[in-house]
Amino acid sequence: MHGGIASATSRKRAAAIVISPILCREYEGEACQLEPKLQFKAERAIVRPEADDAVSCICLDHGLQKSAVACIVKSCSLSDSLHTKNATMTACGAPVRNKSRQYYNMSIVLGVVAVCLVLVRLAFKQFWSSRRALGPDDKIILLTVVLRISGTVLNVKGLADHGLGKDVWTMSVSELSTFVMWLYIMEVLYLAELSLLKLSLSAFYLCVFPGIAIRRLLWGVCITNVLFGLVFVTVAIFQCSPIHYWWTQYGEEPGEGHCININAMGWSNATISVLIDILMIAIPLSQIPKLQLHWRKRIGVVIMFLTGAFVTVVSILRLRSLVGFANSNNPTWDQWEVAYWSTIEVNIGMICTCLPSLRLLLLRLFPGLLGNTIASGSGQDVSYAHGSRGQTVLGSEASIQGHGNELADVEPKKGSDWQSNMTKSNHVLVKSEDRRRLGTLLGK
Question: How far is the C-alpha of 411 from the C-alpha of 36, rounded, in Å?
């Protein structure tokens, strides 16, 4: 907080505001008392407003300010508390803070980039990939895009335009209640988008990695993501009873109601989300050593998967912003950081899910840019060729170490030539499917 009180009258006014709840128009209950030491400081500033330490006694004493706020909030209505705090800050010459434009710009820029990249991904999959069809992961991300467009609009029109990034005492009670309502809606949207992003990435891994063991693990991750989303979205919707008490408690007539421990919910969601992120980074990285790839392609694939770690870093940074999430006396200012990192997390997550498809698109547009070969078992480069129908044909067999037995080896019965031939045919078909999945990741 900055000093700069204009006059002795301003000092006296600031001190009077700080030490007493008499400005409340509808004062109820017993008068609250400051600690004796703080009471003495405030009274001294009133008696000797010309003293050099009057400003430090009131405006620069954070302990006095904090105690006064708690005292006034306890004794006054919300409207009078905001009025009193506003008068105090004005008397102290405090600057008017506003970070809403920064949030506004970030939300629009990242939202547009994320949505455009997803649309490019979907167009590539539908019209230019070898399959010419959307996979389960694409359909899930399409639903996420719908929510993200809605979320971006609400970020701008709901949060930024209704006080996010401003001090709460510069707003009216009705404005504060409206802001909290939009914050509630955005919280539910955020949890839904986050769960869909994780589910989309899990579905993509299911299309890429053929091993039985790894697929069982991935199915478990998919189920976990579904449960993760359903549980926390449901809890977020019904965190207060009645639901509208979440924002009406900040109105002139809050009414009756109660809420769960919102801090506990926020921290548990964020912690579980980070753990799932770490698992979903470790799963693909654990499979890279099993693929016989040229070292350049191996590095490229590792880098592509490690970009997902950036989302985890953002999630951890968001954890820091959750300190005192539901216990703030200045929610429109303090929730700015939570909303800021949550918006970055969702948008960057959408961008990261598009990286494999964007890599394939770049391979199509610039074949020599990223390289278009897979190392064979002998270490030689094996190039892809494209058939008349756009299908990808591998020049020679690409092996996947450790997956051959569990995927393709079927023991034929002795003395049965037709069964032996059928087994060989199945082996070739399974290997072809393995190559198709591998091609999905590496460039087909």
Answer: 88
List the one residue out of 371, 362, 318, 369 whose CA is nearest residue 341. Answer: 318
Give 43's pLDDT tier (boundaries 50, 70, 90): very low
Distance CA(122)–CA(114), nearest Å, equals 12
Asked if 271 and 232 count as a contact pair (C-beta separation under 8 A), the reply is no
**In whole angstroms, how far apart are CA 218 and each of 143, 192, 275, 311?**
21, 20, 15, 19
pTM for the model = 0.74
Instruction: Give one DSSP letter per residue of 206-244, joined into a string.
Output: HHH---HHHHHHHHHHHHHHHHHHHHHHHHHHTSEESTT
The helix/strand/coil state of 291 is: strand
Q: How far is CA 270 from the centre of its chain?
A: 9
Q: What is the pLDDT of residues 246-293, one digit of tens each?
A: 999 888 777 789 999 888 888 899 899 999 999 998 998 888 887 777
CATH number for the segment(s) 100-365: 1.20.1070
C-alpha dihedral over 75, 77, 79, 85, to 10 degrees? 10
In the numeric block, which tokens belong to residue 356? 């494999």
**pLDDT single digits (tens) 371-398:** 544 333 333 333 333 333 333 333 333 3
Which residues make Cβ contacts (< 8 Å) with residue 265, sequence separation at least 6? 232, 235, 236, 239
pLDDT for the residue 3: 42
